[in-house]
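tool_call: predict_structure(chain=1)
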Amino acid sequence: MWLTLAFVSAALLGLYDAAKKTALTDNAVLPVLLLNTLFSTLIFLPTILSAEGGWGWFDGTVLASTPGSAHAHGLVVLKSAIVLASWIFGYFGIKHLPITIVGPINATRPVMVLVGAMLVFGERLNLYQWIGVGLALVSLFMLSRSSRREGVDFAHNLWIVFVALAAVTGAMSGLYDKFIMSRLDAVFVQGWYNLYQLLMMSVVVAVLWWPRRRSTTPFHWSWAIPLISVFLSLADFAYLMALREADAMISVVSMIRRGSVVVSFACGALLFHERNLRSKAVDLAFILAGMVFLWLGSR
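tool_result:
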C-alpha cells in the first residue's frame, strides 16, 4: 500500500510544481508562499480543532488525530522550519528558471537522501545504488551543458544555487520525516506543521516583503495559488501515510516521489512551451534510469 501512496504523491507533486510555476509568473514570491501556507492550514484546521477539542469529528477515518505533547510540537516546529527553508529557495528558483530545468534538479533528492542515510545513519550503498548515484551526477552535468543554450550557467546563476539549496534542505526533510513519522501521527504532523509554517511565513512577509512591496515585484491574485495548496496537501498526506507503514523505506518513497519530474516536464512542454526539450529529455532519461537503479538497490 505504501508504494501506491508514494506513486499518488508523485503525480500530485508534478501538478503542484505546475501550479507553482503558473502562480509565480510575474508575481511576488513571498506573499504567494504565505497564501499557500494559509490555504494548507485551512484545509487541515478542522482536524486540529477536532483533536484539541476532543470532539471526534473524524473518528474512524484516515483524518482521525490526537493531541500532541510539547515534545511532539517541538519536533513538528523543526520540520516546519526545514520545509519552509526549502520552499523559499525552491519558489524563487522555479520563478526564475524553466520548470524543465528545476524538475530534473529536484529529482536528484533521492541521491541526497541515500548519501545522507549513509553519513547520518551509517548505511552502506550497494552496487545498484552507486550506479543510480552515478547516473544522477551524469544527468546533472548534462543538464548544466544543455541549459547554457537558454543562458542558464550552472556555475554562476543565483537561481540554480537556490534550487540546489532547496533540493538539499528537501533531502534533509526527507530523512527527518522518517525519524518523526515513527513517533508521531501523520494527521497531527501535517495539520500542525502547516500552522507553524503560516506563523513563520507571516513574520517573514512582514519583515522582508511588506516594507518593500512598492519597490519590488507586485503581488497579483491567481487561481493557481489555492491549487498549490490543494495539490501539495494531498501529496504530503499520501506521503506521510506511506511513511506510517512499518515496512516503508524512505529511500524508495523519496525516489518514487521524484518521479513527479515526469509530470512537471510534460507541463513545461505542453503548458509553458519551454525550449530545448529534446536535450533535456535525454538528461531526464538518465535521471529516471538512475531512479530505477536506486529502486533495484533498495528493494
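agent: The chain has twelve helices and no strands. Proceeding to next step.
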